[in-house]
Amino acid sequence: MAVLDSPRIVTARAQYDDSHTLARYVATGGYEGLRKALTLFPEEVAREVDDASLLGRGGAGFPAGRKWSMLRKSQISYLVVNGDESEPATFKDHFLVERDPHQLIEGVIIAAYALQVNQAFIFLRGEFALGLERVQQALNDAYEHGALGSKIFDSNFSLDIVVHPGAGAYICGEETALIEALEGKRGFPRIKPPFFPAVNGLYGEPTVVNNVETMANLPWIVLNGGKAFAGLGGGRSTGTRLFALAGRVKNPGIYEIEMVKNTFRDLIYDPALGGGITNDATIKAFIPGGVSAPWFGPDMLDLPIGQDEVAEKASMLGSGSVVVLDETSCVVRAAWRIAKFFSRESCGQCTPCREGSGWIERAMYRLEHGGGRMEDLDMLLDLMDNIAPGLTWPPQQTTICVLGPSIPSSVHAAIDMFRDEFAEHVKLQGCPFD
C-alpha cells in the first residue's frame, strides 16, 4: 500500500488556482524560509542542505550540498538553474514553474545566499510559454516585495536573477551545454576537465548548476531543518520527489511521493496515484527514469523507488519520468520513437552520437515499417556496443557528454526483453499492433 501521509514539500500549494501569485504564496508561508535563512550565517544554511542529503532532482542525482562545497572561491561566481526540461514524457519542472514560480525563486535566493552569489540565472525551455510568463511576473513581484534586488529584506545580501529562455534544444539540459547557450553560443557540451562548472563555468567563472525541483525543496528544508527532510525516505534517497507518470495508466500526471517507502507498483496502481493500467490491461514494461533509462519488466514493480535501489538493478530514476507500456503497446515502435528523438537532438559534436544515433533510428524505422531483417537485430547490438561498450549501465563514455552512450538503452532493452516481438515484425513485414 502506498505511503501517502508524508508532507507535501514542493506541491503544497498545488490545490490553489492562484498558486502562482505572490498573494497566495505569502498567505501560505512564502518567503518565510528566506527570512529565516537571512538570520543565519551562509555556512549554516549550506549545512542544513548538506544535512538534508538532498540529491539533485535533474537526472544525475548528485548531492546538492556536496556540489555547493565544490565551488571554487572567487570574487565572481554564478548560480544557474537548469529548467531546460526537454526529455519526452518529463514534465515535473514544467509543473513547478507554472504552478509555483515563487517557490522556485525563493529556493534560488536561499541557494545564492548560502553560496554568497550575487547573480543568478534561470534557464527555462523556450516552449514553456506560460511558465516563462509566470516566472518573469513572479520575479517582478519579488523585487517589489523586497525579496530580490539590493539589501533583501533589509539584510546585507543582494541578488539579481535573470530569466533566460532556451531555444528548445534537448542537449542544453546538459549543464555545460546550457552554460554555452547562456553565453550566446551554440549548445555544445564542454570537455570535463577542464570545464567543471564549479571551477570554470559561466564566463569562465565558478558556477553552480542546479535543477528546478532541487531549488524548490530549499524553502521547506530551511524552515523545517535538514534533519527533518533526511527523516523522510530512506538510505541516500531522502525526502519526497516529483514523478511524471505517463503512458498506459488511468491517471497520468504529477505525483509527489516519499522516496524508498513507495514502490513502482504503488505509483502505478494505487487509486490515489496512477490508478492502474488503462482498460485493466496487463503491464508489459515500464521506463523508470526518463527515456534515457533502461527499461524494467513487471518483475520490478515491487522495487522501492530510490536512487540506489534502482541503480542496483542497472537503471536510474533520471529525470523523474515513469512511462508505462501495456500488452497493447508495440515495443518496437516505442524504442524507434525514442531513438528518433535522440537522433534529432544530437548536437553533432561527437561521431558516435552524431552518426550512430542516425544508424540506429534508420534500422529501427525499417523494422517497424515492414523492411526489417533478422540480421538487423545483431547488427543493432553490434552498433550499440560501439557507442556504449559492453551495453552496461551506467554506460561507458565514448562521447563528451552522456547523451551518446544513453542512446542504446531503450533499443537494447527492447531487443533483450522482447526479441520475439522483433522477430514477429520481420516475419509479418510490418507491425502486428496496427
What does this entry look like structurally?
The chain folds into three domains: 22-229, NADH-ubiquinone oxidoreductase 51kDa subunit (Rossmann fold, 3-Layer(aba) Sandwich); 239-326, Roll (Ubiquitin-like (UB roll)), CATH 3.10.20.600; 331-428, de novo design (two linked rop proteins), CATH 1.20.1440.230. It has 434 residues and is an alpha/beta fold. Strand 7 and strand 8 (253-258) form a beta hairpin. The strands form three sheets. A four-stranded parallel β-sheet has the order 3-2-1-4, sandwiched between helices. The chain has a four-stranded mixed β-sheet with strand order 8-7-10-9, with no helix packed on it. A two-stranded antiparallel ribbon has the order 5-6. It has helices at residues 22-27, 32-37, 42-52, 64-69, 92-99, 101-115, 129-145, 175-182, 212-216, 218-224, 226-230, 264-269, 307-311, 331-345, 351-368, 375-387, 403-406, 408-417, 419-428, and strands spanning 78-83, 119-124, 160-165, 207-211, 233-234, 237-238, 240-247, 253-258, 283-287, 321-326. Helix 3 packs across helix 6 (101-115) and helix 14 packs antiparallel against helix 15 (351-368).
